[in-house]
């Protein structure tokens, strides 16, 4: 793993920023909000408890909650537009990446529908993303699919580590940006990690080096201006 602050990392050259979405690129957890808002009962509370305790993974959690959801494509779209957003500093960060030939890819254990809706809203639809899939069915029911699952693990709906490994041959440096439990595996194989919240806490407890970030302005400052951002909150 490249040492944090290594000048060779800042110099770039085949650099990929692999970014989580909920709680990272977006300050909101839109996946959580959607599951709660469109559930017709409180079953999600018990499922969430099992997920937080680690007794089930996101694949199982999503399947259990989805059967209790009722909504339409248009109703969910309106909810996402009304409630969702992105880090206001992300567009400037993304412009910097495009100008300097760096790639940005989103790896999310959330859902494709709201990611695509929000990227379109903020004129960022050229960003590649990997996410779980929401399928709108008859009588306002929904189903979930996991096109990027890891059959050997089957914990997360979207295996971010598998995505990182698949992209690894294309880049000299992979920078991971995330905040949650599902970000721990890919962060361990990234060259440089920007973390906050659960990911930062667990990563530091493991004795691993990473930068704490508040927003994408911190990350932009590090790469554009060569200034070190905070190690902790």
Summary, kept brief:
The chain is 42% helix and 17% strand. The chain is α/β, with parallel strands linked by helices and 233 residues long.
Task: Describe it.
The protein is of the alpha/beta class and 233 residues long. It has a single domain, classed as 3-Layer(aba) Sandwich (Rossmann fold), CATH 3.40.50.1000. Helices cover 42% and strands 17% of the residues. Helix 3 packs antiparallel against helix 4, helix 5 crosses helix 7 and helix 6 runs parallel beside helix 11. The radius of gyration is 18 Å and the shape is globular. The N terminus is likely disordered.
Question: Which keywords apply here?
Answer:
233 residues; Rossmann fold; seven-stranded mixed sheet; 11 helices; 7 strands; 42% helix; globular; disordered N terminus
CATH topology category name: Rossmann fold
Poorly predicted runs: 1-13
The gyration radius over C-alpha positions equals 18 Å
Q: At the first level of CATH, what is the class?
A: Alpha Beta
**How confident overall, as mean pLDDT?**
90
Strand content: 15-25%
Strand order of the largest sheet: 4-3-2-1-5-6-7
**What is the number of helical segments per DSSP (H or I, 4+ residues)?**
11
Order of helices and strands: HEHHHHHEHEEHEHEHEH
Summed up, the domain count is 1
| CATH homologous superfamily title | HAD superfamily/HAD-like
Q: Which bin fits the share of residues in helices?
A: 40-55%
The count of strands amounts to 7
* End-to-end C-alpha gap: 23 Å
Structural class, judged by helices and strands?
alpha/beta
CATH architectural category: 3-Layer(aba) Sandwich
Largest sheet: number of strands, sense, barrel closure: 7 strands, mixed
- The 3D shape can be described as globular
